[in-house]
Design a protein that fits this description.
Layout (H helix, E strand, L loop, with lengths): L1 H25 L6 H19 L7 H21 L11 H14 L6 H16 L18 H8 L10 H15 L9 H4 L9 H16 L5 H13 L5 H12 L8 H18 L20 H14 L7 H5 L3 H9 L5 H21 L2 H20 L7 H12 L4 H20 L2 H4 L28 E4 L2 E6 L10 E3 H10 L1 E5 L8 E5 L2 H15 L4
Length: 534
């Protein structure tokens, strides 16, 4: 817990300090501690993204950002006063702060933590962007801006990858700064994301903040930057900057200069995706420039098929799904087991939002509903996984509880937060229902450092010109370049394998067909890896 608190305090100072410098450079009038901190975070991430094309995001860069952050704090203290900020903390603020830090001290339990988050952060720390890295591991082609930001502070400030705890604390400060106590209702939900650097947490919090700022008509340029930043973290919230821009246009406040940040954020996102994945939007293979480092067609087809199968929670084969007619698709989407409840929840959430929209009868609410429907239709057409609709659920909750009294909000938030903390401490109960299998119970060592799972370095192998580590567990996938047993079996099945474009990883990766000798060699490696103890 002490190390998590250290991470939170350092990032509060560094992001705010850098935000002060950027605010002064851009001559933005803003007195919000949280929005200035967001400005610092966004500026750091954009700079890290540019630098990652040329350098690893190593400890030297972290020292530079920390130094600038402290300099910004000094500049602020010299020219302004803390009393400018409009917030006062009460007992419940410190209660929720303690709950957040406590929840963050548990070991990561989300499947993606070791399968995607940590390998992404490690390769960015070690080598920076690698051309065509999706040919080594398709998931690495995603490389969210959130993990780019995380990698830059993973040496000293956040070596345990608890950056989401900082983000949730920043959201807590925002609640008190804007005096929007009803937003405390979301704290228990977000406690489920603070153990690992999931990009879902920042986009959900940013969505709530942007919606809240727009509803309360607190227009600020930083809100547009924040919505664009959310898209760079996870493109499924593409509707958010559209809402900001169209709302300004509707209020006749639109300025052509707003197009500049759209081009900056959008251009950097597209260039990054072309460089790492070979296409403009991960994981969709459209607008093909036929780049030599794009993934093989076999792997792209497989990825597309998996996306469709996940719409039905992997309950059916691809052949079965392909034979579904329109009504079959609807029926099976609503009746695939307990997760169908979440799918039904999407429709209910849209209906709830519709009721509020027609009750308010404001152009902003109509615009919000239209964009959410457009987003839902587009996502369903690619991969109708309920986790892509969490923002829709939250907006429905936002509208339902917006006018809830402070006392009732605090009671509900405290009760649910305590309940979630108890589950983390004693996970055996929920694990009986096949939920949270990777959760581990409380240990006293968490009081000074977060609980971790040990990682080991596996044996090196070589196929063609690629030397790599082979692992049986996703946990051991962090060392670059690594391929786990799932990756190896996938490449064996399709008869392709990653290779260096030239001599080593600095020149990038591509995929080529395996020779007969290499197919035998790969099967031998798979057999050896399969025998490793987990």
């Amino acid at each position: 817990m002490l190390s998590v608190l250290f991470t939170v305090l350092v990032l509060l100072l560094v992001n705010f300090g850098n935000g002060i410098i950027i605010r002064n450079m851009l001559k933005i009038e803003n007195q919000s501690f949280v929005l200035i901190s967001f400005l610092g975070m966004i500026g750091i991430t954009l700079l890290e993204t540019i630098l990652a094309f040329f350098f690893p995001l190593n400890s030297y860069l972290e020292i530079i950002f920390i130094t600038f952050g402290l300099a910004g704090i000094g500049l602020f203290l010299k020219t302004e006063k803390l009393s400018h900020f409009n917030f006062k903390f009460d007992f419940w603020f410190y209660f929720f702060l303690l709950i957040i830090i406590f929840a963050a001290s548990f070991s990561p339990y989300l499947f993606d933590h070791y399968g995607y988050y940590v390998p992404t952060i490690y390769y960015l720390k070690e080598v920076g962007f690698v051309k065509g890295i999706s040919n080594l591991d398709l998931l690495l082609g995603q490389t969210s801006f959130w993990h780019i930001y995380q990698a830059g502070f993973s040496h000293f400030a956040d070596s345990f990858f608890k950056i989401n705890s900082y983000f949730l604390v920043l959201f807590l400060i925002y609640i008190y700064e804007r005096k929007q106590s009803f937003l405390l209702i979301f704290i228990p939900i977000f406690l489920l994301f603070v153990q690992q650097p999931s990009p879902d947490l920042p986009i959900l919090i940013i969505t709530l903040i942007v919606i809240n700022e727009l509803i309360n008509k607190r227009k600020n340029t930083i809100i547009l930057y924040l919505s664009l930043f959310a898209v760079c973290i996870k493109p499924i919230v593409f509707w958010l900057p559209l809402l900001v821009i169209l709302n300004d246009f509707n209020q006749k406040k639109f300025n052509l200069k707003f197009i500049i940040p759209v081009f900056i954020f959008g251009g950097l996102l597209l260039i990054k995706n072309f460089w790492l994945f070979g296409f403009p939007i991960f994981p969709v293979s459209f607008f093909d420039l036929n780049l030599p480092w794009k993934p093989s067609q076999e792997i792209l087809t497989y990825s597309s098929q998996i996306g469709k199968l996940k719409s039905y929670d992997m309950k059916y084969s691809f052949q079965q799904v392909s034979q579904f007619d329109f009504f079959d698709k609807i029926y099976y989407w609503f009746f695939i087991g307990y997760k169908s409840v979440m799918n039904i929840g999407i429709i209910i959430s849209l209906l709830i939002i519709s009721v509020f929209v027609f009750k308010k009868k404001s152009r902003f609410h109509y615009l919000l509903l239209i964009l959410l429907i457009v987003k839902s239709i587009l996502i369903i057409s690619f991969s109708a996984q309920y986790r892509f609709f969490i923002d829709v659920y939250l907006i429905a909750i936002f509208l339902i509880f917006k006018h809830l009294s402070e006392s009732k909000t605090i009671f509900i938030a405290v009760f649910l937060s305590t309940f979630i903390s108890v589950i983390f401490t004693f996970p055996g109960f929920v694990q009986k229902f096949n939920i949270g299998k990777r959760m581990s119970d409380f240990s006293w060592s968490q009081l000074y450092k977060p609980k971790e799972i040990s990682i080991k370095i596996n044996k090196e192998h070589k196929i063609g010109n690629l030397t790599f580590y082979a692992s049986k567990n996703l946990i051991d996938k962090v060392h670059f370049p690594s391929l786990n047993i799932y990756d190896l079996k996938l490449y064996s099945y399709y008869g392709v394998f990653p290779q260096h474009l030239k001599r080593d990883f600095k020149d990038g990766f591509f995929q080529r067909k395996l020779t007969n000798e290499e197919k035998i060699q790969l099967k031998k490696i798979i057999s050896e890896t399969d025998k490793l103890k987990p």
